[in-house]
Amino acid sequence: MRRRRLLLASLSIAVASACASESSDGPTTATGTPPGASAAGTPLPCDVSLALTRCHDCHSSPTKYGAPMSLVTYEDLVRDAPSTPGVSTLQRALERMKSTTDPMPPVPRERASFKEYGPLDAWLERGFPPGDAAEKCAPAAPDAGVVTPACEPDLVVRAESAYSLPEGTADVYVCYGLDVPATAGKRQVTAIAPRVDDTAVVHHIVVFQADKTESPKPHKCKDIFPIDWKAIYAWAPGGPPFVMPEEAGLPMQEGGPTHLVVQVHYSNLKHEAGHVDRTGVDLCTTDAPRKYDADILWVGGFDFAVPPHKTATVECKFDWGQNWTKYLPLQVVQSWPHMHQLGRKLTTDLVRADGSQTPLGHADPFSFFDQAAYPVDVTVSNGDKFVTRCTWENTTDKTVTWGEETSQEMCFNLLTYYPRIPLPQFSGPAASYLSDCKMQP
Length: 441
Ligand code: HEC
Description:
Layout: H1 2-9, H2 11-25, H3 46-51, H4 74-78, E1 80-81, E2 84-88, H5 89-98, H6 114-125, E3 155-157, E4 163-164, E5 171-180, E6 188-195, E7 202-210, E8 219-220, E9 230-235, E10 242-243, E11 248-251, E12 258-267, E13 276-277, E14 280-286, E15 292-293, E16 295-300, E17 305-306, E18 311-319, E19 330-338, E20 343-351, E21 357-363, E22 374-380, E23 385-393, E24 400-401, E25 412-418, E26 436-439
Parallel strand pairs: 11-15
Antiparallel strand pairs: 1-2, 3-14, 4-13, 5-8, 5-12, 6-10, 6-11, 6-14, 7-9, 7-12, 16-25, 17-24, 18-23, 18-26, 19-22, 19-25, 20-21, 20-23
Helix pairs in contact: 5-6
The protein binds heme C (HEC).
């Protein structure tokens, strides 16, 4: 979280300078301003506006999903970047679009392409002349935050009451629970759709199945990623809903309630007051169980040490060998790479007997701030191995090893798969003990 602290430290100055420039120029952005046109007048060239289309999912006016500024009008681009007084937002935008470690759009979205930063580069080079006021630009892309699975949701998960964001807090992780009573027969979850309420500040949503009841009132999460909970789904803006293939479902607890927990990460870098939110998820479930139960397999490992002020990589191999072949083949449908704040990259590859490799979730770069689950569709067969590599940049003065504290690290890839392997060795993080980990030279 080094980058975030840096960002926050400079934010108070940045806010002050943004306010100052607004009072002298008058308000420059208006709600609902079409792309390219600006309320204050200076038109933005259409090719520049078009190149920023994907940015407008978040850097719209007003902003969404925690983005600190709009990127809609001419003035938005030429004023100082919120984090860096003296550097234009346009310049910062280009830096972040080309960054391999801290890219915009953020992971898991696709990196910006030449088609996107090319027009901005050219415009900067020409000294960013205004566009042609008479030209009408194409409208922005539709909101990517609202997604609907094909099924009809039958289980609504919301907090008991709305959550009021405390003023002056930039990032907060809020949790609430819902106990779903057991049904007479078996019940499976087949899809999960995010339902974002206050789009300005919701940064991501995580769904867990906990081991006990969590309060239904929204409260600060005690632990951001408790490893004894089953982490089912993570949504980031623009991400897809969780949809199981037709032959599989995630079983709910039999003979007792299922303790669902929703975690909402709010990001309010602008320290705006008055945000009240009731974000949750809708689930599709079925009482007519599908052929297979799904589960989550944790690959990765515990055995690593990152020396102070060093970048280091561990490689953890999980070999299906002879012991587990009777559970193969199995189908992997989602990958969720998980590390802590020093994590820079996490990849898992399926290595086949013939040496060929298939990616099973690559978070490159990994960003603790922008965690998400990625859909995959890979069949695991006899002779296959999983190879997970985690890279950290240890910016601290201490050797960092595995642990649940935020100052410690993790190297897990949570794979949603079916059919479920009904062995305790495959339950939760236990499966990672089956891996063989070696630090890379
Ligand atoms: C999914 C939402 C989302 C999308 C899409 C997105 N951003 Fe961002 N952007 C954010 C958030 C949240 C932050 C603040 C955290 C950070 O800096 O990483 C941010 C920060 C930034 C910053 C840093 C501002 C500063 O003060 O230094 C720049 C520049 C930026 N974005 C540019 C872009 C550009 C250009 C695009 C499109 C190519 C884009 N972003 C797409 C959410 C988004």
